[in-house]
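User: Here's a protein and a ligand (2-acetamido-2-deoxy-beta-D-glucopyranose). What would the complex look like?
Assistant: Let me lay out the input and then the predicted complex.
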Amino acid sequence: MRLYCAFTLCTSVLGVFGQARAEPANRNATQALLDNGVASSIISSLTEQLNKKSPSTCSVACNTLKAVFGSDDVLLQDEAQYKYLSSAYWSQQQALVTPICIFTPSKAIDVSTLVLISQLSQCPFAVKSGGHAAFSGASNIEDGITVVLEKMKNIELSKDKKTAAIGPGNIWYDVYTTLESHNLAVIGGRVAAIGVGGLTLGGGISFFSNIHGWACDSVVSFEVVTASGVVLDVSAAKHSDLFWALRGGGNNFGIVTKFTLKTFPQGQMWGGGKQILEPGFPAVIKAFYNLGMNAASDPNAGQILSFAYVQNTRIASADLQYANPIANAAILAEYMAIPSIGDTTKVRSLADLTVQFNSSNPSGLRETYWAATFKLDEDMTTFIKDIFFEEISLIADASALIPAATLQVITTPQLENMERNGGNALGLSAKSGPFILLNLNNMWAEAGDDARVLKANANIIQRTVAEAKRRNLHHEYIYMNYASQFQAVIPSYGAENQRKLKAIARKYDPTEVFQRWQPGYFKLDGSPSILS
Ligand SMILES: Cc1cc2nc3c(=O)[nH]c(=O)nc-3n(C[C@H](O)[C@H](O)[C@H](O)COP(=O)(O)OP(=O)(O)OC[C@H]3O[C@@H](n4cnc5c(N)ncnc54)[C@H](O)[C@@H]3O)c2cc1C
Ligand SMILES: *[C@@H]1O[C@H](CO)[C@@H](O)[C@H](O)[C@H]1NC(C)=O
Ligand SMILES: *[C@@H]1O[C@H](CO)[C@@H](O)[C@H](O)[C@H]1NC(C)=O
């Protein structure tokens, strides 16, 4: 049967229908589970066990999940696959966390059932996409349910190939290699093993962001499981408030079960890293500043500049990219003229470049990431570099420490792209940029060194922010994907955006499921932890 109707009538009917299903503030979770196809006997057994107070609520929740989904999808602590999955995180801090069980859903309705069972049993959960958030509890949860999205790995091109629908269990390497055969790409991560989920919901900077913007601004639609277990299709046209909130709002609004991203034509490109010693630092900082200021004149070029302390040597690593397979782009000439001790730049595929950058980010070590934002300024860049080396020299004997201060530019073209499709939640605007985005990142081996490593990083942030304020170069924005657990990300989007995000959360999550029952990572108020 075919439905004949005027376009506007159809869309308004669908719109109303979507709205009506979207906000049942007090949807009955028991009924919702029945609607998802969960047997009533399983639900009564859940309620019965919860009334008994023993075993723990999370054991009850995990047993219930096991009854609904079976052994392949729900892993308990004594199972071999549990041991593998619970340690499959980038940082050691996250790999050491031990949930009561791990749930591996295959589709949106499974995720819905998890959200409902968590609420009924009052057992907290965490969600893992690529597992690259550094601090403990970000995507793994002690004594709760960890939801590992690895079975949701669909990658599907639309008929016209203009969009790709991507499951949240994908890492960018798999996305890029799949799209490569069509000579297409999407905006995503620059390191192979990063997950689609965390990167996109926090912002997402790509090699091609000067051309196409950040990942969150390339999303055409999100499929989201909300607090009441409803599966919503969210876009600029449908639930536009939630669409705005998900562009930078992280895990506060629902579990995204599908990201539909805009594709663009992309073949071979050029890129790699150049290592430069201390005499070249002034030239490298000048090149960084000039490329940042001139981004609009050739947006094919990209840069990531790291200062690091490796084997008692101060080193700069300039990771450079060009979107076309051209080795001598004029805009990169200033960088290329600086004498280097190592150079891996060459013409290669996007996937290949992400593998190259993956190799310098091994997993299994202790890790910390920190972020700050400043107005792009050459002297400020030098100041950041100097403070970094000064503070790091005090902890240089920490075991296997590799500390770096990684600098990028949030360019004017990137900021302009943020205004597309109703804008995002980050609170940045083109008229106040371009910005230096500082990412402090350290890897080390021993937990005994945690306190002083964290303190050194906190000091660098505190001192550079204080100096930037003095020079009128500070911006309060803290990039979620690079922030430490001691930084207040959502408040940094500005008071007005934080208020809006909270209002949208009240609408789609009136009982604060994603604040209370998914406690990890950056919540709507404050920072996850306080540095003692
Ligand atoms: C080596 C390395 C390279 C990096 N390169 C880049 C880069 O090029 N560009 C850039 O912008 N950032 C980069 N980052 C930062 C990166 O974006 C963040 O670490 C991000 O959190 C990683 O996403 P993930 O899915 O791997 O992490 P996860 O730890 O799996 O997730 C992070 C958070 O997002 C939530 N989340 C994940 N998926 C979903 C979902 N589907 N629905 C709801 N919530 C979800 C999780 O619950 C968790 O709280 C890099 C980080 C590392 C360690
Ligand atoms: C919720 O739904 C179940 C199943 O339909 C029903 O038995 C129960 O009474 C409902 N609870 C409330 C509070 O309405
Ligand atoms: C990325 O690096 C990790 C850790 O070294 C490694 O286990 C993984 O296989 C790499 N992934 C890709 C896609 O290259």
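Summary: The two ends are 66 Å apart (CA to CA).
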